[in-house]
Design brief:
This protein has one helix spanning 2-106. With 108 residues, it is mostly helical. The radius of gyration is 46 Å and the shape is rod-shaped.
Length: 108
């Protein structure tokens, strides 16, 4: 009878060990699944962040380029206005300068 009891105890231990192995295996599988999910989510979040930063960079780059274009245009306009003012000033005093030069050239 004792041998039956010993075998029953051994059988219970083997059954408990198998159940424990199944529980551990299920826990490992669940852990691996969660790790894969976390990795996928992290990669997705990284891609979104990278896209966001790239779009911000492109916006700033276009703003900077646009501003330099606007700056060049503004400087060209200012230069044209200054040239026009100088030509007007020169045309106003041109007759006086010519008269003065003729006076000094012809006077000995």
């Amino acid at each position: 009878m004792e041998s039956m009891r010993g075998q029953g105890g051994i059988q219970m231990l083997l059954t408990a060990e198998q159940e424990a192995q199944h529980i551990v295996s299920a826990a490992r599988n669940l852990k691996m699944t969660r790790l894969k999910q976390a990795k996928d989510e992290a990669e997705k979040e990284m891609a979104n962040y990278r896209t966001h930063l790239e779009s911000e960079y492109q916006n700033k780059l276009s703003e900077t380029s646009g501003n330099s274009g606007n700056t060049v245009k503004r400087l060209d306009e200012e230069t044209e206005v200054k040239i026009k003012n100088l030509k007007e000033s020169a045309s106003k005093v041109q007759s006086d300068v010519v008269a003065m030069l003729l006076k000094y050239v012809t006077t000995v």
